[in-house]
Amino acid sequence: MKLSGVLTPIPTPFDHEDEVDIARLRAALTGWLRSPLSGFVILGSNGEAAFLDEDESDRVIAIARDLVPTERSFIVGTGRETTRATISATRRAAALGADAVLVRTPGFFKAQMTSDVFVRHYRAVADASPVPVLLYNYTAVTGVSLPVDAVGRLAEHANIAGMKESNGDLPRLADLAASTPDAFTLLTGSAATFHEALRAGVAGGILALGSVLPDQCVRLFELTTGGRFDDARALQQQLLPIAKLLGSAYGVPGLKAALKLIGCDVGWPRPPLVPPGDAAVSELAEALAPFTAVTHG
Q1: Listed residue (22, 57, 28) closest to 42, CA to CA
Q2: 39 near 74, Cβ under 8 Å?
Q3: Considering 2, 164, 244, 256, which one is annotated as catalytic?
Q4: Is 110 one of the annotated active-site residues of the chain?
Q5: 184: in domain
Q6: Taking the CB of residue 216, how many other CB atoms lie within 10 A of it?
Q7: Is residue 34 part of a domain?
Q8: Across the 297 residues of the chain, what is the mean pLDDT of every consecutive 10-residue run?
Q9: Going by C-beta distance under 8 Å and a sequence separation of 6 or more, which residues neighbour residue 289?
Q10: Are 125 and 94 in contact (CB under 8 A)?
């Protein structure tokens, strides 16, 4: 399995009653399918996956799979805190049509998450998975980091196809690229450093910003891979303010607010998350102002 380009981790819509909003999900996906995005991640961290019950998760996967055509990559987040639960979620996602699964690092017992523990966990998941497995490292969410040496060992597994690295650490990305074979696909989760990450050896990105500004994110990918580095750097700088706001500043609530500002209503974040306040929404609107010609749907 070889992934490239720009994929987006879609947010899961919730309504005022804190239920998964199927109508909003269908409407949002229909709009994103008119964009040049190469694929979608369902139930990633931006999909508030940790907040969904298992039956809700399966329902979201099934609905999204019905809409997303086979020529677009369809990846499902299946990471859980135990190996057993991760394998169960992975098998269900595969049965529902996932092309691959994205498996975050378990992190509840942080001190015990050694390289050997991670390797045993991911090998067991990959052995049991009917579809390719992508490793997922996002220290800001899990509180742990998948060591480079463990990634190198896991890259040897025939059913571990690649990795999403969301830390935005360019030297680490370079180390990962040097420690894994060419067939192992590295993807970044940081829109703020997308241009630099592509030059460091990643094949593409799974970017939350891609759901807000898909055309610009894909254009950045094309400029960089086409060797037009000055133009790519200029576009990266234009995207930087909104990329930062959707990252560490406001996260999922900010992503949903930004989407609403461009006409894509994906509802509210699930409690305990709360919508951003007026000042944050104004900041998001200002950062989006250079792209006001971009609409969704």
Answers
A1: 57
A2: yes
A3: 164
A4: no
A5: yes
A6: 21
A7: yes
A8: 91 96 97 97 97 98 97 98 98 98 97 98 98 97 97 98 95 95 96 96 97 98 98 98 94 97 96 97 96 57
A9: none
A10: no
Residue 4 CB-density burial (10 A; 0-12 exposed, 13-18 middle, 19+ buried):
middle
Rounded Cα distance between 179 and 184, Å, is: 10
Tokens of 286: 């200002």
Token duo for residue 47: 């999909």
Range of the domain at 172: 5-229
Is 287 a domain residue? no
Domain of 144: which CATH number?
A: 3.20.20.70
Looking at residue 293, its pLDDT comes to: 54
Position 234 in a domain: no
User: What domain count does the chain have?
Assistant: 1
Structure-token pair, residue 45 = 């961290």
| pTM exceeds cut of 0.90 | yes
Q: Are 224 and 173 in contact (CB under 8 A)?
A: no
